Amino acid sequence: MNARQKIQRWEPMSIRPIGRPKTRWEDDVLDDIKSINTCNWKKLAQNRDSWKKVVEQARTLYQLKHSIIQQMHKYIIRRYN
User: Fold this and answer.
1) d(CA 35, CA 81)
2) What is the pLDDT of residues 8-57, one digit of tens each?
3) Residue 34: its pLDDT value, please?
4) What integer pLDDT is reported at residue 70 of this predicted model?
5) Looking at residue 75, what is its pLDDT?
6) Best CA proximity match to 44, nearest among 28, 31, 33, 35
7) Number of C-beta neighbours around residue 32 at 10 A
8) Would the CA dihedral through 11, 12, 14, 18 be positive or negative?
9) Distance of CA 17 to the CA centre of its chain
10) Domain boundaries, the chain
11) Closest CA relative to residue 35, chosen from 4, 17, 60, 18
12) Cα-based distances in Å from 70 to 11, 35, 58
């Protein structure tokens, strides 16, 4: 069997899952950092007091997002039931 035939008959060892790859925790954290407009987060993380402010800001944003989502969910349920 020559090289061309080997290439044509080759089958991969594993199967890739269909669809977009799962979001990693690190990706979520970086998205949150971008959403609060913090571009030099590595420098801020070296100073404990400034990093604590960033974390509090991100926590507030997270709580705000979830409260809005809950309100929307309640509204949709009331509207369509």
Assistant:
1) 34
2) 888 777 777 788 888 888 888 788 788 788 778 888 889 999 888 888 88
3) 82
4) 87
5) 87
6) 33
7) 18
8) negative
9) 19
10) 22-80
11) 60
12) 48, 20, 18
Query: What tokens does 59 get?
Result: 């926590």
Which tokens go with 79? 């509207």
Structure tokens belonging to residue 68: 């809005």
The three state secondary structure string of the chain is CCHHHHHHHCCCCCCCCCCCCCCCHHHHHHHHHHHCCCCCHHHHHHCHHHHHHHHHHHHHHHHHHHHHHHHHHHHHHHHHC
- Residue listed under structure tokens 């979001």: 23
Looking at this protein, which amino acid is placed at residue 35?
A: S
More confident residue, 64 or 47: 47
